[in-house]
Specification:
The chain is mostly beta strands. 9% of the residues lie in helices and 45% in strands. It has one domain: Immunoglobulin-like. The structure holds copper (II) ion.
């Protein structure tokens, strides 16, 4: 009897927590291929402000690469940049927003940056010119990065009308006006151009 009660309670909690939101999913491609590392996101919701995560997000320097190559975050998020290689690395962002230079530092060291402005920050290492990454700073928690097949999925989106944006490092950004309802999944595909 007790187990049945717990099961019903669990079902209720599960149902009630998912009943008022929907999911957005789809594929991002260009003419020739599916695009990995595209960021699909709701840029802004008027009258709503979202807090960044309390814990820093991590972008590693490992194997002479930045991992992940593309990292979407909410405005105000602190990103740690630990050096996991046995060589010196540097991290700098040359753009006009979120511009910084952390200097060079050794394996085992960590430096952090708080990303206070929305926009895309290109990250480079002045020692290894092949290293690059992008921190995509957005104003909502509703974002996703496409996998190697171009697929993305954004969960727990409240019902409403939104501008859904897509960014990819080699393509022109796009925006689609969308509407989500109380429940279910909507599919929004993007075909991007250079
Ligand atoms: Cu480096």
């Amino acid at each position: 009897m007790k187990n049945l009660f717990l099961f019903l309670l669990f079902s209720y909690v599960l149902f009630s927590s998912t009943s008022n939101a929907s999911e957005i999913e789809g594929i991002v491609s260009s003419q020739s291929k599916k695009l990995e590392n595209a960021v699909v996101y709701i840029k802004k919701i008027e009258s709503k402000k979202f807090l960044p995560p309390k814990k820093p997000v991590v972008l590693y320097q490992t194997g002479l690469r930045f991992v992940p190559h593309v990292l979407p975050v909410i405005v105000g998020t602190t990103v740690n940049f630990p050096n996991e290689d046995d060589v010196l690395h540097n991290v700098f962002s040359p753009g006009h927003i979120n511009r910084f230079n952390l200097g060079t530092y050794l394996q085992g060291s960590n430096k952090a940056v708080k990303f206070n402005k929305p926009g895309v920050a290109l990250l480079l290492c002045n020692i290894h010119h092949e290293m690059s990454a992008f921190v995509v700073v957005v104003e909502t928690p509703y974002f996703a990065v496409t996998d190697s097949n171009g697929n993305y999925r954004i969960s727990n989106v409240p019902p409403g009308k939104y501008s859904l944006s897509v960014w990819h490092e080699e393509m022109k950004p796009q925006i689609k006006e969308i509407k989500t309802s109380d429940k279910g999944i909507i599919t929004i595909n993007f075909m991007m151009k250079k």
